[in-house]
Amino acid sequence: KVKNAHQPEFLQAAEEIFLSLTPVFEQHPEYIQHNILSRMVEPDRIISFRVTWQDDYNQVQVNRGYRVQFSNVVGPYKGGLRFHPSVNESIMKFLAFEQVFKNTLTGLPIGGAKGGSDFNPKGKSNSEIMRFCQAFMTELYRHIGADVDVPAGDMGVGAREIGYLFGQYKRIRNAHEAGVLTGKTPGYGGSLVRKEATGYGLVYFVEEMLRDINETFLNKTVVVSGSGNVAIYAIEKAQDLGAKVVACSDSNGYIFDPEGIDLNIVKEIKEVKSDRIQTYVDYRPNATYTEGFQGIWSIPCDIALPCATQNEIDGDSARTLLANGVKVVAEGANMPSNLEAINVFLENGILFGPAKAANAGGVATSALEMAQNSGRYYWTFEEVDEKLQEIMKNIYVKSKEAAFKYGSPGNLVVGSNIAAFVKVADGLITEGVY
Ligand code: NDP
């Protein structure tokens, strides 16, 4: 805590995991003997670098880039790149730390990393985005590789940015090393279903949670925060399964559509026009828009899927959801619920799907993209989707079984933390001290 006192997000992520581990140490004193906890919270390395680029007015701009390579015990470092003005070392470390556990849960051979920049893509022209991506890769290339570290997208980094990053990587290395980045455009090394994977995977995970209480998505009222990549495809799959999704948001505010959100309009606003969610009401006069993103949690629903950003649900929002009768909360974003909110859910019998389990579908499909790249072939949409469903089901079962084995039946926070921890800890012991 003292060493990382200036990194609140990282401390929060580490604390959430540590709180789950007491029963593991009671049963496995060898983890104490091997000093596993101290080894696990220290990243293998943190790379930070200057990114210098020229804007459309020929002004030279400077941003800071990061890559936190946290652990490669289970496989090559793997994790997204985030371009957002809030990016700092604490946020990069928390995301990379979570990624180690999440990636382990997928059962696929991938370690954990995260990276990005405090560059703000909002309002930038396409040329500026391209020049920034090229400048960013001009430094990042020396730290990554298909068997070393495989970045992907995250907030502010989609297929367009990955395309520019990949183009620059190829130019510098003179090699078509497709497996060096994931989230590429299908047909240019990308996997089908990668775009949909985190949102779809989240809904598949919730389907498993519901199955255990003999329920389904059919006719459930759902609230999804955000309106980016994860949110859009969570809405799509929930609607496919018969749910009524009544609200979504962006960082300015949220829309409520009592008849159920028309997803084509949201896609038009966000994916085509890159506009604000507020404009949804221009298309649907019965819908309402409210300023302020946190108010979305005051809308009564059966299932809440936070898919925007970290710490978007605090204790008060959690209590409001509870008072309004929410049955299931599952995290599409990384760490959207703070510790107080998680406790409110767990202490009041709400089924809670933590991010590292519930949103692992994106990175799992990235690992499937790596497999296709090294095999030099493509699977069909149906093949990848089927594998994704299988992976989400396995993550659910693994987390549930670990929770049961270590004395917290039904608690998927404890279960997912322990299932992942044990795998990484055993790897550290197997591979010796280094
Ligand atoms: P996008 O950049 O595509 O979308 C983010 C969305 O969240 C935007 O609608 C953004 O609105 C909104 N948002 C940002 N901050 C807030 C806020 N404070 N309140 C409400 N809305 C907000 O990102 P993704 O959808 O890719 O990522 C969303 C979350 O999911 C992140 O936590 C990410 O780490 C996590 N995640 C993503 C994966 C992926 O495959 N993409 C995989 C696993 C996790 P605005 O336009 O106003 O900024």
UniProtKB/TrEMBL annotation:
Pfam families: ELFV_dehydrog, ELFV_dehydrog_N. InterPro entries: Aminoacid_DH-like_N_sf (IPR046346), Glu/Leu/Phe/Val/Trp_DH (IPR006095), Glu/Leu/Phe/Val/Trp_DH_C (IPR006096), Glu/Leu/Phe/Val/Trp_DH_dimer (IPR006097), Glu/Leu/Phe/Val_DH_AS (IPR033524), Glu_DH (IPR014362), Glu_Leu_Phe_Val_DH (IPR050724), NAD(P)-bd_dom_sf (IPR036291). It comes from the Bacteria. Residues 191-432 form the Glutamate/phenylalanine/leucine/valine/L-tryptophan dehydrogenase C-terminal domain. One of its GO terms (molecular function) is glutamate dehydrogenase (NADP+) activity. Keywords: Oxidoreductase. SMART domains: ELFV_dehydrog. SUPFAM superfamilies: Aminoacid dehydrogenase-like, N-terminal domain, NAD(P)-binding Rossmann-fold domains. The keyword rRNA-binding does not apply. Belongs to the Glu/Leu/Phe/Val dehydrogenases family. Homohexamer. This is Glutamate dehydrogenase. It comes from Ureibacillus aquaedulcis. The lineage of its organism: Bacteria, Bacillati, Bacillota, Bacilli, Bacillales.
